[in-house]
Amino acid sequence: MSINQLVYVSQATRKMSPSDLAGIQDTAKNNNAPLDVTGSLFYNGGWFLQVLEGPVATLDKLYQKIELDPRHKNSRVLYNEPAKFRTFPRWSMNMINLNDRQADKYDELVEVLEAAQANRRIGSAAPAVALLKMFAS
């Protein structure tokens, strides 16, 4: 079965507490596991950046559902391409809250999120590609 990687950025409609983020993660884990979807959600300063990996038709339906979630707005797909392998194979949904500044690769992740917000590149790479390369190594 072939898989795609879909990466999007969106803006939170309100400040998210650690318990809000834990609730989002729990719901995503429960929804994604039976769909064969893996990925990671990053949160920083009121912005989300999410990587979803799975069958293309499944990701398309899931993203349509995600767009309707009232906890965020201005959702924009940065990357939606076939992948040779999953970058986040162990997680039906990982969560990294960059507001706590304890995350591994903190500076690089903040740079990716800021580049995605501003629609600018990191070196010669799109932010989504830079993010995927960061975790693939």
Figure out the total of helices: 4
From N to C, what is the helix and strand string? EHEEHEEHH
Ends distance: 23 Å
Largest sheet: 5 strands, mixed
CATH topology: Alpha-Beta Plaits
Top CATH class = Alpha Beta
Gyration radius, to the nearest Å? 14 Å
Helix content: 25-40%
- Poorly predicted runs are none
Strand content: 25-35%
What's the mean pLDDT score?
Answer: 90
Class from secondary-structure proportions? alpha+beta
Shape: globular
Into how many domains do the coordinates divide?
Answer: 1
The count of DSSP E runs of length 2 or more, i.e. the number of strands, is 5
Biggest sheet, spatial arrangement of strands: 4-1-3-2-5
CATH architecture: 2-Layer Sandwich
What can be said about this structure in brief?
Pfam families: BLUF (PF04940). The protein has one domain (3-136): Alpha-Beta Plaits (2-Layer Sandwich). The chain is of the alpha+beta class.
